[in-house]
Structures are given as structure tokens and as C-alpha cells.
Design goal:
14 strands; 434 residues; elongated; 15% strand; Rossmann fold; DNA polymerase, domain 1; 6-stranded parallel β-sheet; 8-stranded parallel β-sheet; TIM Barrel; alpha/beta
């Protein structure tokens, strides 16, 4: 975030005053948008209705919100309730009609751009150039769609490094403009070419807010991230410790989550008595704890909702998935690959390290075995001590708060991203991995 002001100044040196800069703020935190706003920017682009709905109340009312993502007709009503300044991605007659019908119901006229398909990619959507003239886009008011004001066109170039092809796309789109005032073309990699070809609105994201993270390996904690086991661990630890004269609460368990079993017992025993617990006491407590856990769960606590989808997504995109856990519970570790369709490249457990979390050793060992650069790896944790271990290892820490502790405790340990659930993590991963 410290570079946002610098990035805006650098971009502005290449953007004439006659060209509108739309800062693509999708998936960016409110704090980042506020920095860009304070630097003087007023146009921001979002691609998801729900995210836009969340951000609008938190930011100044004079921001001009642009909707730049693919718009499904079932989202039209909710989007128009937000009164976006401009919708860029109107790509079909069906969507035109849905927007016009809903704008009529809500009693206002919505400004839009038509997306023109000029790229050599089937995955991109929009009207073909020859279809644009058939829409009579310069009619004012437009008799077909009286509650829409067609302000111009939006286009995306073919995803290529070939400048000749990029120029062809932008030039073809510009020919379709037909005296309309707005031509939205160009993103971080090609906006200078777009301006040279006639664009008077550019959409810039990564050059302002930073590049997407390249993810090649993901290191997952086990309990509370893969298995929905922490409620049972908390109760069984409290039972076993109290049985042996150590008053222990489930909350203590959540705050010590990530330590090895020996580490849990020793940390608490030293805190209470100022000395180490004996090996026999550690063995007895852990045996009672495991027995209680298995009695409550039948040996298997179930999985965290949504984590299988996250793993399948990463595995399907060639990302290595590892388990990095302080657990020594054989039944849970042994079941990992069968439970999660053998997606894991490797497992680092308490049997593989001398020092458990919050020491960085478990995550450092996984990182070394992965063979990737640290900036190409992420950690998925749910516990403050796990986040501390990840950051001490120099890794990017995603915290999914599946337990009762407040987000502030995860943030205090340095979590780079905090998510309320696996669905939110998956949405973020979709923005990082193409």
C-alpha cells in the first residue's frame, strides 16, 4: 500500500488530462482505495455486485463507481439499486433488455457502454463490430432502450505480447465508436497503446495496486483448516489437563493451537509451575486427551466447509498443496490423502520437526521441500500461533477465521489476508490464479 501514491503518479505521467483513469479496485481492501482517493482519484472499477455493495458505504460518496465485470442478468436488480456511474460490460441484447426493464422499474436512466468483441479469443464476450451499427447506438433517446443511455464502447485486446495485434484490436474498436463520447480501452499492460489508438478512458489495476501474487505452493494447517476438529480438541484438552490437576479452558486450547502436544503441555505447565512436566505426565495427559477426542468424534471430526473446493481449485491449477501441522494424531494424519482425494504433495507433522509452531521450522521445512521461492508460496492458517510461525518463516499468511478468536488476534500476528470462511478464500484465490 505504501507504493500506491507513487504508482498513481507514475501512471498519470503517461495519461493525458483528456483521458479518464478508472482505478480497478476489485478485490482490493477499502484502505487501498482510500489511499488512491486521497491521492485525488475519483473513478474506481469493481467487478462483483456484492463487493461493490460492501464498499460503497465505507467510502466517500463522491466516488464514481464503474462496474467493469461480466454482469449476469440475475444481478441486474441489485447492481442498479447501487446506481453505478457507468456499466462497461454490456455484452448482449439479452442484458440490454434486462437493464432497460429494471431501470424502468426503478425509475431512472442508467449510463452504459457496449462491449465490442475485437480480440482473437473466444473466451472474451461482446458484440461483433458489425452488430454495433444495428443497435442504433447514437439514437438519443434510444427508442429500443429508453431507460439506458449508451455512452460509448468498451473493448479488450487479445491477450498477447504482439503490439501489432493489440493495435489492431484497439483500432477496430475505435472505428465502431460512431461519434459516441466514451471509448474505454486499455489496462495496465497496454493502456499506452490504447490511448494512442483513441481511448479516452483506461482501466488500470495492477500498475496502481500491485501485481497479482504468483502462487505455486500452498501450505495448509490441519486442525481448523482441513478438519473441523478444533471444537473437539478444545474440549478434550480441557478435560485431560483438568483431570491431571491443570485447570485448562477451551479458549486456552485455541490460543495454543498449532503447538505440538508436548509443546501445549509444557507451555502451560511451565507457566503454572515454573518447571517442565515429566515425560510420563505428558504421555498420560496426551493419552487421555486422545481417548476423549476419539470418543466424541469416532476418530473423525469431519472437514471444514468449503476447504475441499479450495484444494480442488489449487490442485487443478497445478499448485502444490502441503499439510503443515503440529498434530501427532495418527488417525487424522493417516486419513488426509483419502479424505482429500490425494491432492497433497507432502505432509509435515510433529514427527518431522524438532520445534513446532510458533517456531518457523515446520513451514520452513515445507518451503524447502517445495523447491519454490518464498514469494511463490502461501500459508493457510486459522490460528494466531500458526500465523506467527508463517510470518517468521517469511511466508505470505492467509488466515481463515474458523474459530472463536477475534480477527484482531490474527492481524496482530501479521496475517496478510484474513477471511471469514473458505468461500471468501476461494474468491480471493480466483483473483490471484489465472
Amino acid at each position: 500500500m505504501n507504493n500506491i501514491n507513487i504508482n498513481i503518479r507514475n501512471a498519470r505521467t503517461h495519461i493525458p488530462a483528456s483521458v479518464t483513469l478508472v482505478c480497478v479496485s476489485k478485490f482490493q481492501p477499502v484502505e487501498a482505495i482510500r489511499i488512491a482517493y486521497e491521492a485525488g482519484e475519483r473513478h474506481f472499477g469493481e467487478s462483483r455486485v456484492q463487493e461493490l455493495k460492501t464498499k460503497i458505504p465505507q467510502l466517500p460518496s463522491d466516488i464514481r463507481w464503474h462496474f467493469i465485470g461480466h454482469l449476469q442478468t440475475n444481478k441486474v436488480r441489485d447492481l442498479l439499486k447501487l446506481r453505478p456511474y457507468l456499466i462497461h460490460s454490456v455484452d448482449s441484447v439479452h442484458l440490454l433488455q434486462a437493464l432497460d426493464d429494471e431501470a424502468a422499474k426503478q425509475g431512472f436512466v442508467q449510463d452504459i457502454l457496449l462491449e465490442v468483441h475485437v480480440a482473437k479469443e473466444e473466451s472474451k464476450t461482446g458484440f461483433l463490430p458489425e452488430e454495433i451499427s444495428d443497435l442504433q447506438i447514437c439514437e438519443s433517446p434510444n427508442l429500443r432502450y429508453p431507460h439506458l443511455r449508451i455512452r460509448g464502447l468498451m473493448a479488450m485486446a487479445t491477450n498477447t505480447d504482439d503490439e501489432t495485434e493489440i493495435r489492431r484490436c484497439f483500432t477496430e474498436a475505435a472505428k465502431c465508436l460512431n461519434n459516441l463520447p466514451v471509448l474505454s480501452m486499455g489496462m495496465s499492460d497496454d493502456y499506452r497503446i490504447a490511448i494512442d489508438c483513441g481511448a479516452n478512458m483506461v482501466r488500470i489495476g495492477s500498475s496502481i495496486f500491485g501485481e497479482r501474487k504468483k502462487i505455486k505452493a500452498a501450505f495448509f494447517d490441519q486442525d481448523g483448516v482441513l478438519y473441523n476438529s478444533m471444537p473437539y480438541h478444545a474440549v478434550s484438552w480441557a478435560y485431560a489437563m483438568t483431570k491431571h490437576g491443570l485447570p485448562y479452558t477451551p479458549e486456552e486450547c485455541y490460543r495454543n493451537e498449532g503447538r505440538t502436544s508436548t509443546g501445549v503441555i509444557q507451555e502451560y505447565y511451565q507457566r503454572i509451575f515454573g518447571m517442565d512436566a515429566t515425560p510420563q505426565l505428558i504421555e498420560d495427559i496426551y493419552a487421555d486427551k486422545t481417548a476423549r477426542f476419539n470418543e466424541m468424534t469416532g476418530g473423525f471430526p469431519g472437514t471444514i466447509p468449503g476447504v475441499s473446493e479450495v484444494l480442488r481449485f489449487l490442485h487443478g491449477h497445478g499448485v502444490q498443496c502441503w499439510v503443515v501441522t503440529g498434530s501427532g494424531q495418527h488417525n487424522l494424519i493417516d486419513a488426509l490423502n483419502d479424505t482429500f482425494d490425494h491432492v497433497f504433495t507432502g505432509i509435515i507433522s510433529s514427527f518431522d520437526v524438532q520445534h513446532g509452531k510458533p517456531d518457523p521450522e515446520p513451514y520452513l521445512k515445507a518451503w524447502e521441500r517445495s523447491g519454490f521461492k518464498k514469494e511463490e508460496c502461501i500459508v493457510v492458517e486459522n490460528a494466531p500461533l500458526g500465523v506467527r510461525a508463517a510470518k517468521a518463516a517469511g511466508l505470505f499468511a492467509c488466515a481463515v477465521n474458523t474459530g472463536p478468536l477475534p480477527d484482531e488476534e490474527l492481524a496482530a500476528e501479521g496475517a496478510d489476508k484474513i477471511f471469514p470462511d473458505m468461500k471468501a478464500l476461494l474468491e480471493w484465490l480466483n483473483t490471484q490464479i489465472k
